[in-house]
Design goal:
alpha/beta, Glucose Oxidase, domain 1, seven-stranded mixed beta barrel, two-stranded antiparallel ribbon, 11 helices, 28% helix
């Protein structure tokens, strides 16, 4: 068995979810005179690749330490929606079902393609990554419940549509852009489409059912699209943790790993060595150009 890393690099330049504490690092010991280097870190839990736990939004829910390994590691479907969902778009369960087989009890990983705008990428754009990525409506949430999904992962800032979060109030220029897109594509103003009854539904309506999610996936996810694979998410064994920074990997057999490494060799790499497919960015830019025209 071999592993494909689906985790983004974590450093002081990694953006947290807006208004959350970023990673801060300092040395409290140095080789001279202490004989060892030692560091102190401060950060929030919503930074880099991380797993939102139930008590992030659901007071009587489980903490991160209570999540079983069978829950965190399981068969998964990875779906690529970068060919159909651009800036501010709403994705649906139908889009997922058309591209990959999703079974009851699966983990579902959604490749929006917006990891290409993450801080570690040559096409980095923090506003698009956090504020303009696509997201779901209640239809998708109800479908996820009916599938009894273990957990959901996304390669962007949030599992919710960014305009169905407080970001809508914090970023008024982007909210006006989104409003135009919603009127054109969905026939109603943004505020009517995502009214107060739907606010952060992927958090507020899913966590009480135990369907949590991971955000800010990436790494070499472009190698594994529209297929089934075993996925493992490894947060801290964090007692009272509402969420946790985590490592996410896909598990493949040795023969397939060799084929994936051959594919990786043909693709460009980030400065951290992760392979990526620039065709996804081209598709997203074309979709988004039409949305915003």
């Amino acid at each position: 068995m071999k592993f494909i890393d689906l985790t983004i690099p974590l450093g002081i330049a990694t953006p947290p979810w807006p208004t959350y504490e970023p990673l801060q690092l300092k040395y409290f010991k140095r080789l001279a005179p202490n004989g060892a280097n030692g560091q102190v870190l401060t950060h929030s839990n919503h930074l880099g690749t991380h797993l939102d736990g139930e008590i992030h939004f659901h007071t009587p829910g489980k903490d991160i330490a209570s999540l079983d390994m069978d829950f965190l590691v399981h068969e998964a479907a990875i779906v690529d929606l970068s060919d159909i969902s651009g800036d501010y778009d709403v994705y649906t369960s139908k889009m997922v079902d058309e591209r990959v087989e999703v079974r009851e009890g699966d983990i579902l990983i959604i490749h929006t393609g917006y990891h290409h705008f993450g801080w570690d990428m040559p096409t980095a754009n923090e506003i698009r990554y956090m504020v303009m990525h696509p997201g779901p409506d209640r239809e998708f949430a109800e479908w996820a419940k009916s599938k009894k999904l273990r957990w959901i992962g996304v390669d962007c800032g949030s599992a919710d549509h960014p305009m169905n979060t407080i970001i809508r109030d914090w970023m008024p220029r982007q909210a006006r852009q989104a409003d135009k897109v919603f009127k054109k594509k969905y026939g109603m103003p943004l505020a009517d489409y995502f009214d107060d009854s739907k606010y952060q539904l992927m958090h507020l309506e899913m966590f009480p059912y135990g369907i949590i999610h991971a955000e800010c996936l990436g790494g070499e996810i472009d190698l594994l699209l529209n297929r089934r694979v075993t996925i493992g998410m490894f947060p801290w064994r964090f007692v009272d943790g509402e969420s946790s920074i985590a490592r996410c990997v896909a598990m493949v057999d040795d023969a397939e790993y060799e084929a994936l490494m051959a594919k990786k060799a043909s693709l460009p790499k980030t400065k951290f060595g992760d392979a990526f497919d620039p065709a996804h960015v081209e598709r997203l830019n074309e979709l988004s150009k039409k949305n915003l025209a």
